[in-house]
Every structure is written in structure tokens, then in C-alpha cells.
What does this fold into?
Amino acid sequence: MSIEALQHQPPSTVKPAISFLDLKAQFASIRDELTKRVLEVLESQRFILGPEVEAFEREIAAWNSSRAAVACASGSDALLLGLMALGICPGDEVITTPFTFVATVGSIVRLGAKPVFVDIEPETFNLDPQKVEQAITSRTRAIIPVHLFGCPANLDPILAVAKGNVIPIIEDAAQAIGSRYRGKPVGNWGAVGCFSFFPGKNLGCAGDGGLITVNDEAIADRLRILRTHGSRRRYSYELVGMNSRLDALQAAILRVKLPYLDSWTQARCDNAERYRALFLEYGLQGHVRLPQVPEYAYHVFNQFTIRTLSRDALRAHLSSCRIPTEVYYPAPLHLEQAFAYLGHRPGDYPASERACSEVLSLPVYPELPPEHQVAVVRTIAEFYGR
Ligand SMILES: Cc1ncc(COP(=O)(O)O)c(C=O)c1O
It folds into this structure.
């Protein structure tokens, strides 16, 4: 149905029970394949690494045009393992954004290293490349750009600064599988790329899961050892590692889902376009700012995040109309209690702080019915008296 036809349906015919994310819709579409493959793994009784995980690693590496992929227990562990593989030590400094999920910064702190924050660009919510250079010191050992909400960070200028100072890049692509920067998939631009298969991600498993993409065989080798207690051979330990492996059950589920990922991503992009058209139709441009897609970006819309000065009131209105939304993120990490020891104050990273008070994520999952999008935008229009 066209936007106009949807929009001109009388409100009484639109009575959706809107979900922010409806994982059951996806499950229903692949139920038989999933249950068959899960049963096969159960029959095999091989649960830790093994052929299922190896096959998934090969398939996703090829899909992402990466030389290798090393699966692990979560996106958080992917970051931790990536930092460990690069030899990040206590006292080292790692540059990243304060407007991200806590795991980006937590992984740095867990190794005794110091997170050094750089503010974001307000348009993309990603690390501001102009501000990276001034944050570099003699102790900087890595830079972690985050491809937030599915939009790649502006990597060229970040890579230029990193290269000039011989500092490796770790891409936090947890929210951005399938996203491309200047046509090349994320996860291939730095030393390692870190992905999450948390159920709400564009490619989600049935629990926690993560993956590191890598184009350097020596780093891949180190990662494989690190995720298995630092061991290459049983009861022989080359490094101090950890236990962070993807289960065969999760790998089997992800292998079923991977072939669908491009079409699910396309559906997210279509939904984003439909929102754009609807916001325009309702004349809401002066009230909300829609997500920007820079010329270099293929944005995969893990989130469709708008900005508005009246975020809290709008959210309350939507909630009273049973329309769920989310705030990613309500506070920048430099002001969180866990990182108070770094001594930051309000005002240190103003673009991140402003984003935290203005952002609102709307439902955008692939199976989201168009009439639900109409109901969302119509309710926003109602709030602004349009
Ligand atoms: C930007 C970012 N980094 C890291 C992670 C951590 O991934 P996981 O939840 O799989 O540990 C997430 C998960 O939400 C994330 O959004």
C-alpha cells in the first residue's frame, strides 16, 4: 500500500499493538529450518567449537569479504579479545566515544587501560574525526570507532590519523553488521572488527554470541588461542586467555539466518525510507531531526533514531498511546558512576551530552508493518499539533 493510501486510512482502522522489536515474527518465518538444524546439533552432541562453528566462521568471513572470522561468546568479549590480541596493557590509553554501549569502554577498563574520550559528530552520533588527533598521546595504543545504530563512522580521516601515529583501529561494529563505508564492509578497516549476535542485533542468535573479523592471519591465530584459555594444544598454555567460545547451537542458528540477512537489512532500509516520507508528509521537519546517512555510508538501521528537544514529553505521549520507543543512551559514559574515577564533568563532551537528552529510537525491525509506522508518525504529528 502506498504511503498516501496508508496515511489516509481513518484512524479508527489502525489499532495496532505495536512492538519495538518483534523477534517472534522472524522466528515464525524460519521456524522449520531452525528447529531442524538445532536438532542436528543436539543429535551430534558436539557443543563447543567444532565443525558447526568453523563452517559459520568461514561463511560469515566470506559474506563480509574478510580473510578470517573468529567467533566468541559475545560482542563484549569480541572487544576484549581484540584488545588482548593487540597487546593492550595496564596504563595504555585507548581512544573512543562516550556515546556508546557500556561494553565499548568496559572492555578497555577491564584490561587496566585508560579510556580517552573523544566527542561525537552530532549528525551521525559517531566519533568526530576532527577531534581524534588532539586526544593522542605517547601512551595511545588503540582507537575504537563505534558504528553506532548501524551507520559507519567516518573512517578515512580516523585511519589517516591512526596511520600517521602507528596506532591500530578496533572497529566496534556490534550494531552494524552488513554496513559499508565507501562500499567496503565494516570490520575490514582496522586491525579487528567486533560484532555482536545479541538477539536484538540485525543478525541475532538465541542468547549471547559475538565475532571478530580479521584480515591478518597472525592476529587471527592469536585470537583463536586467546578465546580458548590461551591454549593451542590441550593443557599447554602459550598465553593467558579466557573461555569465550561460540556454542555450536548458536553457530547452527546463525548459519540458518545468515542467508536472510541481506533481505532483512533491505527491509530495515525500506522502513527507514518509509519513515522519512511519512515525516515529510506530516510536515514534521521543523520538530524532529531524522537520522542522517552520509555519502560514504551504507546504514543498516539497527536503530532508527530521531532527535527532538521535546524528547521526554514526546516519549511519554507515545507511551500513553501504547507506542514503545527506546532511549539509546540516556547518559554519556563519561558521566556514569562506573567511570567517575576518570574525573570528567558535565560539559566535557557536549555533543554526546546533548544527544543523550534528545535521542529517541523508533521501531524499525524488518517485519514492522507499514501501518504501524503510519500510526507512529501520526501520533508524533498529533503531539506537535500537525
Ligand atoms: C556498540 C556496542 N558495543 C558492544 C556491544 C556488546 O555486545 P554484546 O551485548 O554481544 O556483549 C553492544 C551490544 O549492545 C553494542 O551495542
